Amino acid sequence: MTHPYLAGTAVPRVLAHRGFVPAALAAEGAVENSRAAFAAAVAAGAEYLETDCRLTSDGEVVLCHDDGLARLIGDPRPVSSVSARELAGLMEGRGGLLTLEQALREFPRSRFNVDVKSAEAAEPAGRILAAAADRVLVTSFSDRHRLRALRAAASVPGAGRPATSPGRGRLAAALLALAAGSRAGFARAVAGVDALQIPERRGPVRVLSRRLIDEARRLGVEVHVWTVNDPQRMRELVGLGVSGVITDRTDLALDALS
Question: Using an 8 Å Cβ cutoff, are 250 and 46 in contact?
């Protein structure tokens, strides 16, 4: 049965990778995963917003990809050592900080793809996401983080189940099963999964294949590919049977795939 996160919306899906920061917005100082970046993605027409979450020193779940702040704002400290209030101040000229709760509240019509980046963020993120389970997908490179978040969501009385995409371990098991020609092994590896969100390649290893797409589709599992910024390649992937692309160029993707 299709999860509500994926139900009732058009395929192919365009997932705005950490929001959308067009050149004009970047010139103003805005960065990825900021309030301004998500507002820009929504204004461009994106329904799906991809993001990441980490925990601050005072226990707030905030939208941030990197472990540290150096790349985005030139601060050498890790996110976990800074309070949410201080981080909000640092992000004032960078498009504005969003906590996970604020993002769900301020973008009530958006569907969120949330990558849990740390063990500490998993349980509090899961509890927050439980209230919006019908429009949330939980993922992580770490299946342990992902499953902790899902269990936390399930522990909230009356909460639904968020959609989910596997981490590296489950994905590796799926690829090994494909290589061995084991449909049963592949089905076990993707059991309970709603989408496979994958790169085309991981180093020398080709992850995406027509066989993977076909086997996933047979089981009712979508395939979304990251991070694709070339419109021609987007169209080629959709032609192969990919159901969604995760992109930094929301504008180009919506134009190419509409």
Answer: yes
Copy the structure tokens of residue 237: 């992937």
Instruction: Tell me which DSSP letter residue 183 carries.
Output: H
Give SS3 for 54: strand
Beta bridge partners of 17: 50
Share the mean pLDDT of the chain.
97
Dump pLDDT digits (tens) for 192-233: 999 999 999 999 989 999 999 999 999 999 999 999 999 999
pLDDT at 99 over 90: yes
Tokens 């098991």 found at: 173
Residues serving a catalytic function are 17, 65
Rounded to whole angstroms, the Cα distance separating 133 from 160 reads 5
Per-residue burial over 3-42, b if 16 or more Cβ lie within 10 Å, else e, is bbbbeeeeebbbbbbbbbbbeebeeeebbbbbbbbbbbbb
Domain boundaries, the chain: 13-257
Statement: 13-257 belongs to CATH 3.20.20.70: no
- Give the rounded percent of residues in the chain with a pLDDT score beyond 90: 97
Is 63 within 8 Å of 100 (Cβ atoms)? yes
DSSP 151: H
- The answer to whether the beta carbons of residues 116 and 55 sit under 8 Å apart is no
C-alpha span between 25 and 31 (Å, rounded): 8
